[in-house]
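Ticket reopened. Same input as before:
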Amino acid sequence: MGKTLFEKVWDAHAVRQLANGQTQLLIGTHLIHEVTSPQAFAMLRDLGLKVKFPRRTFATVDHIVPTDKFEEPYADPLADAMIKELRKNCAQFGVTFFDRSTGRQGIVHIIGPELGITQPGTTIACGDSHTSTHGAFGAIAFGIGTTQVRDVLATQTMAIGKLKVRRINVDGHLRPGVYAKDVILHIIRKLGVNGGTGFAYEYGGEVFDRFSMEERMTVCNMSIEGGARVGYVNPDQKTFDFLNGRPYSPKGADWNKAVERWKSFASDRDATYDDVVRFKAEDIEPTVTWGINPGQAVFVSENIPTLAEVPESDKAITQEALEHMKFEPGSPIKGKKIDVAFLGSCTNGRLSDFQEAAKFLQGHKVAPGVKAIAVPGSQVVAILCHDLGIDKIFQEAGFEWRDAGCSMCLAMNPDKLVGDQLCASSSNRNFKGRQGSVTGRTLLMSPVMVVAAAVTGKVADPREVFHS
Amino acid sequence: MSLSKITQITGRAVAVPGDDIDTDRIIPARYMKCVTFDGLGEFMFYDVRFEENGKPRAHPLNDEKYKGATILISGNNFGCGSSREHAPQAIYRYGFRAVIAEGFAEIFFGNSTTLGMPCVTVSKADRQALQALVEKDPKTELGIDLEKKSIRAGGKTFPCEIRESALHGLTTGHWDPIAELLESGKEVDAVAARLPYMAG
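Engineering reply: fixed in the latest deploy. New output:
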């Protein structure tokens, strides 16, 4: 009987069964950042332990960095202390640190792939729930807590129970104006924010076959918003082409051997799954969230639900969301006036996101009264955008063009909403307070819908804004 | 490294009602700018407990009646979102020793177990009944018995569930896996040696 990629990677990395029934799993690649690692290094010191495989551990700084100021010290002494702590820990334990001075700094889930550190058939862990992003390459990538960061630093392994695998097929052709972000928001809307608990999501079908690596990353990134800790796509020629020639990719004769090995990890045709779910691409329209979790989403042409329309089990959370968002039940999402437009994050802060958005933005201006910021996900993305003149398109349209970082996705740096501002955001979470103001309101959408909102000053269907 | 065996958690409880309570809600990101977990308890559910000007809101967590509660009760998909261990750390450091909910997000569940803070699941009806008992009389003592998978409260017994691996770790005093993981350094090296990328 055939095996899934998940099972093959699991089997190749399983060290032994632990007394509690979990598996001790080797983690080949450990990515760390400034927020969830300092306590882990402190635990390591307390226990008198070293980093077992420092050459398989890579660090960057993303959550706390100001995106409008490069020089240190930062205005926020706590943020300043965190970057210095990471620098100290990496130096002491011999870990490679892609600091801001290296030109390779950026959001951890963007730099892993762009440096070729993220590879098929590998296990990856990072103290960040969006680690699922790396699954786009056919890696099994886990978001972990800080005590597990300690475990991986000290032993290069962690204790974990095996997940079930749900195959999610999206077949057919996406309509124009429908993007990877719409696909994952649709999947979460349909399967629920906790529908994936206990599962790894394997994404496949014609739409994923055609998707670029960056589009696959956008979908895998938000697996955790559907409750699935792991999401992946089987590696194919696109995966190998993306990785070829990157700084940490195998070179020369090793490259060909690596590709052959990587191919062998793809799920077998006769693999069995614990569950299979199918979607038709044609059914998906540009999607936007209206509530306080990523599953509370509608097509941009639809109305915000009324309490009467939702199942009994969703009534309380719907009520809570309507109150927080200050939206009239049953009113259209389209036309809601926005205050802020944010383009960036580990979900949609890659070159293709800015490229696609710039195609539509060119020749338009940000609507008066809208604060619009564009934040490349990495220094490499920033350079590529600059070389292609994309930064200029954004700036001429009235966007602020920033340095690489997590920025307004999560309010750990100076980029924050104020009061009850409504933000059109290409990020991944619309939780209450997520973007830095307790009363702030977030609408998750694709980058192209963000620029449509920026130029019209309201939630808009990009197909109407840019094709009329 | 053998730790204390956690089999029973007894104490008063307080409910934070609602489904899908995310870890941003449990510990807002601005309080994660720290290099230790010390002091995080103070900021647990900060924006749920306090208005922006620092004035306490009317919330069970601010109600004197529930002061000293060591068991937290909540709805479905508790702890969803970010993997931040700061969330269970804040709950633990605030003084809670167990969480009862209709369901838990996976990373939160694992992080809590590793701290020695059991997360047990009950049905919606039982969660409502437990919450009602506590709200009617905040002095109600709850007794979670992990081995029996039950919760005693108000003269009644409610069934609860907990994942077997967590149950085993907690009840045998091996909820922090580091010692066991460190035992097998040679086996780890052998697995790594079979993986070409580990040499890179």
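The mean pLDDT of chain A is 97. Chain A touches chain B through 84 residues (CB under 8 Å). Please confirm and we'll close it.
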